[in-house]
Amino acid sequence: MSDAITRLIYQHHECDDLLARLEAAVQQRDLCTGQRYFHEAEQAMLAHFELEETILFPAFESATGLLHGPTEVMRDEHYAMRDLLENCRSLLLAEDYAALQAELDTLFIFIQQHNAKEEGVLYPMCRAHIGDLGALLAHTHASCTT
Amino acid sequence: MNAPRNLAFHLAPSPGVIFGCLLPAPWLGMVAGLLLALGPAEGLPHRFAPLSLSLVHVLALGMLLPVMLGALFQLFPVLAGVPVPATRWLAPWVAPCCVGTAGGLVWGFLGSNPTGFILGGTIATIGVGSVVIALVVAGWQVIPTNASTRVLRWIAWALLVTVLLGAALAGVLAYGWGLPLRSVLDLHVAWGAGGWLAVLLAGVAATVLPMFWQAPKLDARLSRLLPGLIWLPLALGLLELAGLPSPWRPLCWLALCLLACLLLYAALEAKRKHDVAWPLWCVAALSWWLAAVLGLLEGVLPADWPIAWWLGVLILVGGAVLPINAMLGKIIPFLVWLHLRRQLPAHVRVPAMQTLLPPALQWIQVMLVLFAWLCLLMLPIAPARLALPAGLLFAASQASLGGLLLYVLSRYVQLAKT
């Protein structure tokens, strides 16, 4: 895997870690910590989506000519994750911990299957078809570090 | 690198195709439990007791095989970007063929009837064989990038060898074919339990444990051990058929022991231990480890210990039924959630997975199946007395899972209509 792809995968792991911390805080009914981790997880995820949607996916589509292929599916799943994040935000504000836990469970699993497809299929295709992927992604600072 | 595999996401089979393979599984598990509870207990817990042989095949063929094949129909396109050829036509036949094969063999074992073996062998060779060929073709196109895709590339060959060895056994039992029965039997069991079941579970676990329970991902160097780690000693074993002996049995147990340790490490390091199904993975890993240790020590343990029964329970129930129960409890609600998301209008909020399958209900099922596992392990203490409660408990655990999954589907139908 190229360094650029490794960085994208690293962002996935960082987002996973933030969500796990959020889940733990919600289980302990720790509203303050939960809000902090939710904010960090949301920022990290949205930045990652933006990086993919504005730079990676167009480059892939341009290199392969596939406008309605995997990138279309990934974009659609990004929308679904944005919706789930929005639901989580509402439930967190309402302090409805049981419903929030259930929504986070769905969000977490949805993200994992999405990441598995990106890491297993899309990223290797990007690496194979986009010339100088490293330079393309180098100027971005969309890391979701805590 | 092949041409872009853009069709991967579009050719994933419809939920109906996958549900058809997955949903009958718990009910076949229930049948196995009832068979133990109400069947002829004479000879238990001996491995060659007709009831033991029947139970093994109902579990392995009737319950586990359709789930594993159904999972492959889904995993090939989703994880590897390669759809299995003719999925639409093959998938509806998977569960009937597996049940037909198991039924024929049960008839053969319990009724001492060669016709049962002929029926089971024929259905397995034609029905399961067709699926195996499709999986071999799909596997050939998989580009291995991690443990799961590496297993997907090769796994059909293990099933092919298992089916061929099983057909050879059926030939020996039905027609008296002149093959070395003990070697063929040991290899059939080893390829089925190790080459197919353990390798596929390890490959699937490498994806689903991080996905659902946030376990650490398998190290890339270790992932390269699959499937060769198990298959090399098994391939050595095949030489036994040509009269070339080798220490393939202890090598196989050692390899399984290593896999079990990796699985146990992953389960214990999982971050989502609060999930109700998480204990099932811990007990599954422990079962594989105990089975490997028992297998290694079999030669030095007292001859009257029911090693074969314990191995069967540890591998089939602990090592396979438990993780499959855990996965069904996640995958079915998730597929329903995905399908609802696609079907419902944008303004309608799709209920969370835990709303579709409440964790409190799933927890009861998890406790039932864990108690059943324990009771089955204790059965050799008093087989005649414990067969009924152990069988009923196992049947109840699987019926409750089947009921929960039907509840999820009924919620889906109800919500899809709104």
TrEMBL record, chain A:
One matching Pfam family is Hemerythrin
- Boundaries of every Hemerythrin-like domain copy: 4-126
Q: What is this protein called?
A: Hemerythrin domain-containing protein
TrEMBL record, chain B:
Residues spanning the membrane: 12-38, 58-82, 89-110, 116-142, 154-177, 189-213, 225-242, 248-268, 280-301, 307-340, 360-381, 387-409
Keyword Ribonucleoprotein among record annotations: no
This protein's UniProt keywords: Membrane, Transmembrane, Transmembrane helix
Q: Where is the signal peptide?
A: none
Q: What is this protein called?
A: NnrS family protein
Tell me the organism: Chitinimonas viridis
